[in-house]
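Supplementary Methods S3. Complex input for the farnesyl diphosphate-bound model.
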Amino acid sequence: MSLFQKKESAPLPPPNHIAIIMDGNGRWAKKRGLPRTAGHAAGAESFRRIANYCRELGVKYLTVYAFSTENWKRSTEEVGGIMTLLGNYLREALRDMEKNKVHFVFFGDLSRLSPELRQLCLEAESASREYDVQVNFCLNYGGRDEIIRAAKAFAQDVARGEKTPEELDEATFSQYLYSASVPDPELIIRPSGEQRTSNFLLWQSAYSEFVFMDVLWPDFGPRELDEAIAQFHRRDRRFGGAK
Ligand code: FPP
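Predicted complex, serialized as structure tokens:
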């Protein structure tokens, strides 16, 4: 460092829980004249890079939107391509469990997945239980669907006499969501220039800071994550209070 260079201050700690909408794979592929599935393959690489970087930074929970309840509307070829990438990734994760040391959890209705993929999800989840850093894969996930399922499950507990309506408060309801026992994300990042939540973590994002970035997901790397975390630290979080 030269004498005249400003000494860099220590980086601020990352949030405990970061969630990402991995958007822009299709546009990334289109720009290159490639099929959309090539964009998703590049997106899967980007995910690997960011998951490793989050672990290095000490992020405790990383939640990624891999496939929504609405994504079934895409072509059979594209849906099949994403499912194949997920399957390959989980097989690799099961092989490298000791190296990655990540606990895999799945948010979403896995019953619509192929039996093979569902089995891989269950195996990855149970084989990685002992690890502290948690990656939540949202697969066939929708925020509204999650809330409706939670409401039904609570109603069933009431019908069985295990709960009373008076017991229902925010903390109790949270325990019926896929994210039960996971703290809400402090930071939600959406790359690709779109500025909407697209049915992602509707309940959990009540007080999350959103960072929207003009970069396509396959081009998103550690530098972009650092920038999103820096933006997060510049926000004034009041949680409805006043200063
Ligand atoms: C949104 O981009 C992305 C998806 C619907 C799929 C995300 C899936 C992956 C990144 C691969 C999953 C695999 C692993 C291992 C994580 P888009 O296709 O809507 O992009 P566009 O808006 O540019 O069309």
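Confidence is low (pLDDT under 50) at residues 1-7. The longest helix spans residues 36-57.
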